[in-house]
Model the fold of this input.
Amino acid sequence: MRHDRIDPSFFESNRGRLAAQLGPNALAVVGANDILPTNADGNLTLVPNSDLFYLSGVEQEETILVLFPTAHDPLLREVLFIREPNELLRIWEGHKLTKDLAREISGIKTIKWLSEFSKTFHAMMCEAEMVWLNENAHPRAVVESQTRDARFVRECQDRYPLHSYGRLSKLMHALRVEKQPEEIELLKRAIRVTKAGFERVCGLVRPGMFEHEIEAEFAHEFIRNRCKFAYNPIIAGGANSCILHYNENDRPLVEGDLLLLDVGASYANYNADLTRTIPVSGRFTPRQKLVYNAVLRVMKQSIQNATVGKLHRDWVLEAKALMNEELLGLGLISRAEIQAESPEEYAGRKYFMHGLGHVLGLDVHDVGPMNRPFAAGWVLTVEPGIYIPDEGFGVRIENNILVTSGSPLDLMAEIPVEAEHLEDLIHSGRSRS
Ligand code: GLY
Ligand code: MN
Ligand code: MN
Done:
């Protein structure tokens, strides 16, 4: 791992809060993600399982965590199973977790090799009545291949059909959505590195550069700061800024165009999610600035609107109403269209066709009970946009905020966002080179 070691008390307290909800004679199983194959003998880099990391700090493939808080044998209340290192692994893959290291990282006392899983798990199941198993329950997940979790659910239910089963994801979502202070610190670090990348780019951007050269500047800043991209960066010049998930990043930047940057760093698996839209030539045109400031006003007001007790759905509706007024002011929609809108037909949809924001954390589109009201500790993105293909540009601005018992805290308040500030940044970069 490239990140600093996290104090195991964080993972211990996460396990404690989950254990308190499992109920008597109940155990929970959380596993690593699969390493997915590509072509020939290739594979994708492992993406650590977020729940496993949250509960143990372990990022290694094939790991299994079993929590059984009421087990008769105190040594079986928390058990972590890891791959046994061998000579071949050492030669080809180098460092793998030893039992001591897994114990230090996780704070779990009982560490066993995977080869001991079946026998140990059987003993635990003979005592348990109820089993909490995991699944991907993100409402927008598209899962076309069978996951390691899904395979385990089948195997477990085949072998132990008389136990009762529960959906661990429900409990995990409720826990993970309320960030702990340690998580806020990790998010702030990812945000600081994202800021460094953005400011570097503002100092370098100029017409004639290619989008992928901008991507490379972010990579430089992220990797040297022990981060990686939180998601495929969107580096979208000109009309590409109207393509919501543009990832080609292969076009030259043109004088007079806007450049939409939706880029975040990930540190210790915690993700920043920033969007800024900047003028390639260092000055917004009057029309671009009008649209930019309209989006900025909606973002600022939506940050203020993210208060404890607010339902995500109502928060979005408030933003849509604000956006309608801005679109009216920009001459893009009419008052009659606003008056004619219905819950199915949002008047501004042609120009603002995506969500206002999502919860953020170990996953970029994080997990959380989105039908429950916001509570202190939720971290949200706030990302309104206006896209006008007919005028050849789109503007999105995205900050990450923390819901608190008082006013929402803008975790990206230090990242330049005012149009004039962006222009100054770009110009001072020009005059240095
Ligand atoms: N960058 C992904 C998103 O903004 O949701
Ligand atoms: Mn984003
Ligand atoms: Mn986002």
